[in-house]
Amino acid sequence: MPKSMIEVTQLHKSFGSLEILKGIDLRVHQGEIVVIIGPSGSGKSTLLRCLNCLELPTSGTVKVEGENFADKSGRYNEKRVARLRTEIGMVFQSFNLFPMMTAIENVMAAQIKIRKKSKEEARKTAEKYLKKVGLAERMDHYPSQLSGGQKQRVAIARALAMEPHIMLFDEATSALDPELVGEVLKVIRELADEGMTMVLVTHEMRFAEEIGDRIIFMDKGVIVEEGNPSELFNAPKHERTKLFINQVLHPESEKI
Amino acid sequence: MDILNHLDFATAFKELTPELWQGLIIALEATLGGFILAAVLSVLIAVGRLSESKVLKGMLVVVLEIVRGTPLLVQLVYMFYVVPLLISLVAQFFIPNYQFQLNPLVAGILGLGINYGCYLSEVVRAAILSIDKGQTEAALALGYTQRQALWSIVIPQATRQAIPVFGNYLIMMIKDTSLLAFITVNELLLRTQAYASQTFLTIESYTILAIAYLILSLPLSQVVRLLEKGLSKHA
């Protein structure tokens, strides 16, 4: 039995009186690639953000490599949460690069501040990962001088430089111009080939089908259906899943 | 038209200029000290007002209202004449006959610093609030604590954004150092007053003083404008 990297039990999340997640159970194994799909407002991004406690669960538990984010008394101690987060890299839809730093400084910052590495060490690691995402030539550029696809690749390098055990991708290509999506997906695919444990939220169904070991379909705060890609895309069991996949794959038939 | 015939700018210029140089040094000292204090205070107040603590927030709002609701000149006079008395009063419980005194320049720096710190805190607060939440989230996701994210990611960006506004306040502060004349700081205005009353060269003295301030602030406005351009590059 492979090691369990993420373990979510009976996760509920409410914003005020609005319940977004209504009891999610999820387990992600080492090296597994889980893709979460679903209509907007289904809670998939919230679920992903609960996995590194950017959203604190209203109830239920989230464990990373066996360690609970909450301490024994059920509280979310900030230092503990921060420490566990260093094992989880996250890539956002809107990149969120630090605008006052160059690409390489973006990748170095947390290594120095959080991992307490020396500047030289951090620079070496940063160079390695920027090369990996194909940006060796752009290291000294500021985010404002980079294209969307380049920015997102820097963001991926920044997350990887912390050498996390898990990577989360929150609609990493949704803000990109269509012609730039490919370069980012290529980097993600390479990571998948190297055996990185990943959880992705995406609207790229073809990519989800190709890369995912398991697809999770969410709607209205619950996991409606999960399974391997060919099952879920070709023979969905639930009516809601069928409807969603049909709509996404054939958008022009939506209004008929 | 008698006055016109007696105008003597040449003499006034010759005699007053060295005085003004001396005064300028003091004015710049006051500005430097006052502005550093104001900048530090502004960030601390802004962060305090964005904190979770209701007590701290409440206290800061009271201080801000007091500072904004009273004239700077009154604050300076209060700082110089009243605050030392109050401190002496309290200190005398412990040390008999203790007299606390505040150097006029120090009182001026404190007064200017606190006043400007309060106004600038609003600028910093607005700048902090304008920074995209994604910046904090990215830092948190990398393992920063809230405090680390605030101080090493958000505040550097916010202060960068605030710098042009800070520049304008800096120029205002240089001009406001003239108020320190009222608390016996020997800056430009006080020296000019002294010279004018000795020589009766009133028109000449104050005109030269006004021009001196202009010469001081015009190039600075230009510098602020350049700063604004340079900083907007990677914002």
Automatic annotation (TrEMBL), chain B:
Residues 20-224 form the ABC transmembrane type-1 domain. It is a multi-pass membrane protein. The keyword Membrane applies. Keywords: Amino-acid transport, Cell membrane, Membrane, Transmembrane, Transmembrane helix, Transport. The chain crosses the membrane at residues 20-51, 72-95, 101-120, 166-185, 205-227. CDD domains: TM_PBP2. It is found in: Cell membrane. Belongs to the binding-protein-dependent transport system permease family. PANTHER family: L-CYSTINE TRANSPORT SYSTEM PERMEASE PROTEIN TCYL, MEMBRANE COMPONENT OF AMINO ACID ABC TRANSPORTER. This is Amino acid ABC transporter permease. It comes from Sporolactobacillus shoreicorticis.
